[in-house]
Amino acid sequence: MGWLDVFRSNEKKTSAQTAKERLQVVVAHRRGGGGDHPAYFPQLQQDLLAVLRKYVQVGDDAVQMEIEREGDLEVLELNITLPEDAKH
Amino acid sequence: MAKIIVVTSGKGGVGKTTTAASFAAGLAMRGHKTVVIDFDVGLRNLDLIMGCERRVVFDFINVISGEANLKQALIRDKRHENLYILAASQTRDKDALNQEGVERTLNKLAEDFEYIICDSPAGIETGAIMAMYFADEALVVTNPEVSSVRDSDRVLGMLSSKTKRAKEGGEPVKEHLVVTRYAASRVGKGEMLSLDDINDILGIPLLGVIPESEKVLNASNSGMPVAMEDNADAGQAYLDLVARFLGENRPMRFTQAKKKFLDRLMGR
User: Thylakoid: present as a keyword of the record (chain B) (predicted)?
Assistant: First the structure.
């Protein structure tokens, strides 16, 4: 810090600082709660597994879920893998 | 074992193709057999940056669709024998890329090359996802500017969810940050996001900083990857980046503004 900085100490924040603060908000929003997933995701996954298990024996990773966003539209993509021997 | 590296960013115009060309050139100059593939189907540009636009006969899509074999489509760089280019198609659109075709082509290239560099199109649609899908590592190219940083964050999210490694639950794609068009003097004045700012937000290791430089435009005008130019600051920065990628320890250069005499005197 140079001696002239004394006179500059009460300057308002730079545009780069503003940029950083704005970015921190939008990025934290995307990353919040483990990526794109809404807060109800883990519970929904557990509930779906419970329903499935009434009919088929499946492992803990049988239900895969993803949220896709296209403009204003949100699509819940559900992928259920049945075991090889799940015959009726 | 060949390594597949995607050069990606989300946002357009940040220097993906410039980076892909110079990264590939730098690896080749260090003796590694390298191929760089243009995934920007319909908006072919890598050939121009590499200076081989008049030698493109067959392209990536021709290979995928079986109209040509790899040997016919690969263009050998005239300056470095280790460097090859696979051009994108100019007439098709991105739907011509399919995952099986891309995988088949990459597997075939992996038999012959040490490094396969995938130059991603801008955006987050099919072309960009195809470019990153099979990647082992990623160079995320970012400008010190809000929209570019935000888009890079989005791309980081995709690298950790849409790639083969992510889907198969293997080791995640190794991510590297490349900051391009960095103007140290403007950072010093508080007009531009600094490396620390970008690092705080994106949180991935910095592989290289490429200074804003008129040499980049000069090099692309003449169809020469800037890394091959002697005495170009941006070219030197790319060679440093390549050295770091290969495991060498090189301090970052071009990240401090040159101080004028009066500024030094005033302690600015």
Answer: no
Question: Hey, are the CB atoms on A30 and B197 less than 8 Å from each other?
Answer: no
pLDDT on residue A33: 45
Q: How many CA atoms lie within 13 A of B18 on its CB side?
A: 30
- What is the model's pTM? 0.80
**What's the confidence (pLDDT) of residue A58?**
86
What's the structural domain count of chain B?
1
d(CA B262, CA B268): 9
Please report the pLDDT score of residue B66 as a whole number: 92
Where in the sequence is the domain holding B95, given as residue range(s)?
3-264
DSSP H or E stretch at residue B25: helix B16-29
Please give the average per-residue pLDDT across A39-44, as a whole number.
Answer: 74
CA atoms within 13 A on the CB side of A37: 15
In this prediction, residue A47 carries a pLDDT of 87
Q: Which residues contact B207 (CB under 8 A, 6 or more apart)?
A: B139, B176, B177, B178, B241, B244, B245
Q: Under an 8 A CB cutoff, do A2 and B160 touch?
A: no
Q: What is the pLDDT of residue A5?
A: 57
Which pLDDT score is estimated for B77?
Answer: 97
Cβ contacts of B197 on chain A, cutoff 8 Å: 16, 19-20
Q: Show the low-confidence residues of chain B (pLDDT under 70).
A: 259-268
The DSSP symbol for B161 reads T
Q: What's the confidence (pLDDT) of residue A42?
A: 72
What CATH number does the domain containing B254 carry?
A: 3.40.50.300
B110-123 confidence digits (pLDDT tens): 999 999 999 999 99
Please name the member of B150, B161, B193 whose beta carbon is closest to the beta carbon of A26: B150
Is there a contact between A19 and B193 if contact means CB atoms under 8 Å apart? yes
Chain B residues inside the 8 Å CB shell of A2: 266-268
Question: What are the φ/ψ torsions at residue A51 (nearest 5 degrees)?
Answer: -65, -45
Residues B96, B98, B103: CA angle, nearest 5 degrees: 135
Half-sphere exposure of A26 (CA within 13 A, CB side): 14
| Structural domains in chain A plus CATH codes | 36-87 (3.30.1070.10)
